[in-house]
Design goal:
The chain is of the alpha/beta class. The chain has one domain (8-228): Rossmann fold, CATH 3.40.50.720. It has helices at 17-28, 40-46, 62-76, 99-127, 148-168, 195-200, 204-216, and strands at residues 8-12, 32-37, 52-56, 81-84, 131-135, 174-180, 225-228. The chain has a 7-stranded parallel beta sheet with strand order 3-2-1-4-5-6-7, sandwiched between helices. Helix 1 (17-28) links the parallel strand 1 (8-12) and strand 2 (32-37). It holds the Pfam family adh_short. GO terms for molecular function: oxidoreductase activity, acting on the CH-OH group of donors, NAD or NADP as acceptor. This is SDR family oxidoreductase. Keywords: Oxidoreductase.
Length: 235
């Protein structure tokens, strides 16, 4: 297995939910993490040690994405991992979806992934190694009522990551995509911890463990896609 100790990662959406769980688990494995999110106060709560460097920024801003990469290189001296986790969603009949909601989902879910990858890929190519992990959704592989906007954004994010995988593989760079089902988080204005969610949803820690799994795979092993089933909690 690949030893993650002293590797450096950027994790987006790191202040709560899945991103927080990924950040804390990676830090426990000895990874130094640039934890990126919009909420400075929540980020400070996540940054419990010198392993985690909080960065209040937005994934939809190209300068912020480049700054995250630059800070990782300047503060920690290297960059090995990028976890594109930040995501938003709202659900409605197509005719009731506000154009602003559509734009926000594509900005965060697709453009946010694009901008961070764009900033990190030249560095990964130059060093002939690196690992990009995208947290998409199982709805990137299926459709459902009220999911036109969110599903479209996740299909687009999945296509972006799949195409990028083919572009960077010749340079020794990995791209893995994780497709969680329902997760017990604050997503879509939910309140985590309900009895129903605990019985039927994945936990943020389950997704974090999946990220750890793909990152620790030996260098010659490429795990392109990993689907997480919300009911069995098996992956």
């Amino acid at each position: 297995m690949t030893d993650l100790t002293n590797q450096v990662a950027i994790v987006t959406g790191a202040s709560r939910g899945i991103g927080r769980a990924i950040t804390l688990l990676l830090a426990m494995q000895g990874v130094r993490v640039v934890a990126l999110a919009r909420g400075a106060e929540e980020l400070d709560d996540v940054a419990q040690s010198g392993q985690i460097l909080p960065l209040a920024a937005t994934v939809t801003d190209e300068a912020d994405a480049q700054q995250a990469v630059d800070i990782a290189l300047q503060h920690f001296g290297r960059l090995d991992i990028v976890v594109c986790n930040a995501g938003v969603g709202s659900f409605n009949l197509l005719e009731n979806i506000a154009a602003t909601d559509w734009d926000q989902m594509f900005d965060v879910n697709v453009k946010g992934t694009f901008l961070l990858c764009k900033a990190a890929v030249p560095h990964f190519k130059a060093q002939k190694r690196g690992h990009i992990v995208g947290i998409t959704s199982d709805v990137a592989r299926r459709t459902f009522e009220h999911g036109t906007a969110y599903g479209a954004s996740k299909y687009a994010q999945d296509a972006l990551l799949g195409s990028l995988r083919k572009e960077v593989r010749p340079f020794g760079v990995k791209v893995s995509t994780i497709y969680p089902g329902l997760v017990d988080t604050y997503f879509n204005n939910s309140r985590p911890g309900s009895a129903e969610a605990e019985a039927t949803h994945l936990r943020p820690a389950d997704v974090a463990q999946a990220v750890r799994y793909v990152l620790e795979a030996p260098a010659h092993v490429v795990i392109d896609e990993l689907m997480l089933h919300p009911l069995s909690q098996e992956w």
